[in-house]
Design brief:
This protein has 356 residues and is of the alpha/beta class. It has helices at 8-12, 16-20, 40-56, 60-67, 85-96, 118-128, 141-150, 169-182, 204-212, 233-241, 324-342, 346-350, 352-355; strands spanning 24-25, 28-29, 74-79, 100-104, 131-136, 158-163, 193-197, 220-224, 245-249, 261-264, 301-303. β5 (131-136), α7 and β6 form a beta-alpha-beta unit. α8 crosses α11 (324-342).
């Protein structure tokens, strides 16, 4: 099934997992729009591919090989919402595979300044580029444009690099890849306890990762936040439907010893309905400090999607369990793997040794 086989009104009314069936064809990702389109099979496969790319990229010959995969393709990075890590990791991922890159990061320099709609802008990009990576404040825009292009004369793929407060699927992919690598010697992600801390109500990274963790057996999720910033009922229903164990609590220090992974997040005050609204919430006890390292499991990991403010002390950075810088670099590798899969050069990469 593909997006050209369903009417828009029918597609947008589907549940997240039902939508996912229209976005992947076998092992081939057609569009990367929502976390729920990735099952355990896809997560394991993309993780394997990302690790292979990391290995190949260690040598000049390997980098030359990777650069030769997609020099005939062009990617547009359409980032109308501020971004550092996501933009640069996609830029680097495209470079690794040899894609030529265009970008729009400020609508004041585009025809949107003249009143052009975002939909018309994306349709214009599709005339010149073979892939569009989108980051936008507008919820659902990436999905809408993927459907529009799928039903156009130039049906190119779209990757959602963050849409409103709802989804950030490639951040969830890099988070899962970080957990895969961190736990590969201790039984994998299955059976682990993952603690989410901070602004869980508005954090799209939390929403997306929680969705992907439903693919793993015996996981338990702890949602730790002030009442005003606690996880939404929508996500809890998703977990209930998947029979995933979870707890909601405001206790942070007391629960640290239980966690195999702690996922810290900053306050998402860019979504405040009124300026300064988030500052009224007391978040002082939801910060990871150096003294907390003493009660953190020896094989646990401390994660953060970044940017951080004061929710993780810089005194923690030296500890090997603080993996957020590695997590950020993993984003480049998993996004490279995703693009390779979208353009069907993944098999060539996995067979690298046989071609050398």
């Amino acid at each position: 099934m593909g997006l050209n086989e369903i009417a828009w009104d029918d597609y947008k009314d589907l549940g997240l997992y039902e939508k996912g069936k229209f976005l992947i064809d076998g092992n081939h990702v057609e569009h990367a729009l929502i976390a729920q389109q990735f099952g355990r099979k896809e997560l394991d496969y993309l993780g394997e591919l990302a690790t292979k790319i990391r290995f190949i990229a260690k040598t000049r010959e390997g980098m030359d090989f990777l650069n030769s995969q997609l020099p005939h393709k062009r990617a547009m990075l359409y980032f109308t919402q501020p971004s550092t890590r996501t933009f640069l990791s996609f830029f680097a991922a495209c470079q690794i595979l040899g894609l030529r890159i265009g970008n729009v990061r400020d609508t004041a320099t585009s025809s949107e300044f003249k009143g052009e709609t975002q939909e018309d802008s994306v349709r214009s990009f599709s005339s010149y580029y073979d892939l569009i990576v989108m980051r936008t404040k507008k919820k659902g825009l990436a999905e809408r444009m993927a459907w529009v292009l799928a039903n156009s004369e130039r049906p190119i793929p779209i990757i959602n690099a963050g849409s409103g407060q709802d989804q950030h699927p490639t951040q969830a992919l890099l988070d899962i890849y970080t957990l895969q690598r961190s736990f590969e010697g201790i039984g994998g992600i299955d059976g682990k306890t993952v603690m989410f801390v901070g602004d869980l109500a508005r954090g799209r990274t939390v929403r997306s990762l929680a969705g992907l963790l439903t693919n793993y057996a015996g996981v338990k999720l702890l949602f730790v936040a002030p009442e005003q910033l606690q996880i939404s009922d929508e996500i809890l229903k998703l977990l209930d439907d998947a029979d995933v164990s979870y707890e909601i609590t405001s206790e942070f220090e007391e629960r640290i010893p239980e966690a195999n992974a702690i996922y810290m997040t900053r306050i998402q005050d860019e979504w405040d309905a009124h300026k300064g609204e988030s500052a009224k919430v007391d978040t002082t006890k939801f910060c990871f400090k150096a003294e907390h390292l003493d009660v953190l499991k020896k094989d646990a990991v401390l994660m953060h999607p970044l940017p951080r403010r004061n929710e993780i002390s810089t005194d923690v950075d030296h500890d090997p369990r603080a993996v957020y810088w590695r997590q950020m670099r993993n984003g480049m590798w998993i996004r490279t793997a995703l693009i390779a899969n979208i353009f069907a050069v993944d098999k060539s990469i996995l067979n690298y040794e046989n071609q050398s």
